[in-house]
Structure formats: C-alpha cells, structure tokens
Amino acid sequence: VEDHLTPRTRVCSFCHIATITGQQMPLTAIADLTQPRDILLVCDGAQAPGMINVDVKALGVDTYASSSHKWMLAPKGTGLLYIRKEVQDRVRPVFTYSGYNAYSASSGTRNVPQIVAHGVAMEFHNTIGRPHVEARCRQLSAYARQRLAEIPQLTPITPPQRELSSGIVSFSLTNGRHSEVVSALQKRDIFLKPAQGTYAYVEAAGMPKENYNAIRISTHIFNDETAIDRAVEALQQVLG
Predict the structure, then answer these.
(1) Shortest CA distance to 17 belongs to which of 158, 135, 195?
(2) Which pTM value belongs to this model?
(3) Which domains does the chain have, with CATH numbers?
(4) Roughly how many angstroms between the first and final C-alpha of the chain, as a whole number?
(5) Is residue 103 classed as helix, strand or coil in its secondary structure?
(6) What's the distance, CA 204 to chain centroid?
(7) Chain segment 197-208, per-residue pLDDT in tens
(8) Can you give the pLDDT at residue 85?
(9) What is the DSSP string of 152-204?
C-alpha cells in the first residue's frame, strides 16, 4: 500500500473482508500509513459485522459502512455508517433538504420497522456475545478448509493465517467449470456461491458463467460441522 501512496492521494478505500476471497485486510496497519499523511481511509464493511467483532476505533478507519442483511442477519436495506469525529467536517451529505424548518440530517420518512429489526439483530449478536460469534465462525471456516484440503481438484484461495482469514472460505477448481459444479451442488440442496473477479453475482455485468473462477463457502453460527461434511461429500461426488 505504501508504495502506491503519493502526495496527491486523498482517499484509500478497502474492504474489511473481501467478498470473494474472504481475506481480512490489515486495516490497522493501513491506517498507520494513511493517518499521518492526512489520507482518508474508507472501509467497506459489508461482510465483517456479525462475522467478526468489529471495533472501528481500534481499526483506525475514518469511515466504515456495513451491509447488515449479511452476517448481521438484519433486514435487507439496513446498515450502519461510522464517520470518525475528526473527519466529519470533510464529509458532505449526498442529499439536500427543502423543508421549512432548520436543516437536520434526515432524508424524510424513516423505515421504522427495519430500524427496529436491525436493533433486534444487534441484540441477538450481543446476547450470544460477539467474540463467541467470531470464534465459532472461525472454527467452522478452519474446519471447512481442513475438509476441502482432502479434495485434490481444489486450490485454496482464502489465506490460512488467522489475521488474514475470516468466515468465508473460497477455492478454485483445477479442472472443470465452477458454475456447472455449483449448479450440480444446488440439485443436492447444497448452496455455494460462484464468483469471478471482485463481484459475486456477475451476470448483471455480462460475465458468462463459464468464466467464473471461484467458489465460496460461508460459515455462520447457524451452520455446523455436519453441514460442512455434507457439502464436502457432495463436492467429492460431483468432481468424481
């Protein structure tokens, strides 16, 4: 990262956890590079909250946004936005307000049921304990990597190191089309995600299915070792 920073750099943007590879970015180390240079560190936290125990202040990021219908298990359309106090004056709202009263940070009528449901999802995680949720997700992903290593036709993509890994385990095939394998697994009620590049659903971008180059397993607390065993056994059958 440091090699790419120049006097013209104003913003660095990273995923906390890469949606395809499952790699956890070393945000604290990156923040140590950006903050002294007055560079904003913007973080896409779509995959992390609800999977790992996120402490935005410890990470050192300037902004952090979540997509809470994922690992947080909240409704679609909900999320969290954090902006570090010291940089809030550098962030401008993307909407204007034309009401008669004084401006307030409001975009109109709020979706109260979704906001309340998001709070319930957070309470669910806090009741279990966010460190416990993270530990279980990591335990399952480590078990998935162990079982997948038994299949010679697979090449691991997700880094094995704890500080770089997460609850997402991705791999590629040495032979065969990823999309065809995923379709065969779906017929066995095994649902994995095919992926290409940096986007999981690429059909909208015009990417043909035969060019998918990865398959992703996500291990949340509602999964268990038996489900992983079943997925691995189905993979072995499909790959022959």
Answers:
(1) 158
(2) 0.84
(3) 2-128 (3.40.640.10), 130-239 (3.90.1150.10)
(4) 42
(5) coil
(6) 20
(7) 544 444 444 545
(8) 95
(9) TTEEE-S--SGGG--SEEEEEESSS-HHHHHHHHHTTT---EEEBTTBS--GG
pLDDT, position 36 = 96
Tokens coding 108: 């109109």
Q: Which of 76, 19, 14 minimizes the C-alpha distance to 218?
A: 19
**158 and 145 in contact (C-beta within 8 Å)?**
yes
What pLDDT is recorded for position 200? 44
Residues in the chain: 240
Region class of 13: left (phi > 0), else alpha (psi between -120 and 50), else beta: beta
Averaged confidence pLDDT in the chain: 89
Report d(CA 181, CA 194) in Å as an integer: 9
Sequence letter at residue 207: M
Lowest-confidence range among 59-63, 85-89, 174-178, 223-227? Answer: 174-178
Cα–Cα distance measured from residue 32 to residue 215, given in angstroms and rounded to the nearest whole number: 33
Token pair belonging to 56 = 């935005």
The token pair at 124 is: 């669910």
Is pLDDT at 175 greater than 90 in this prediction? no
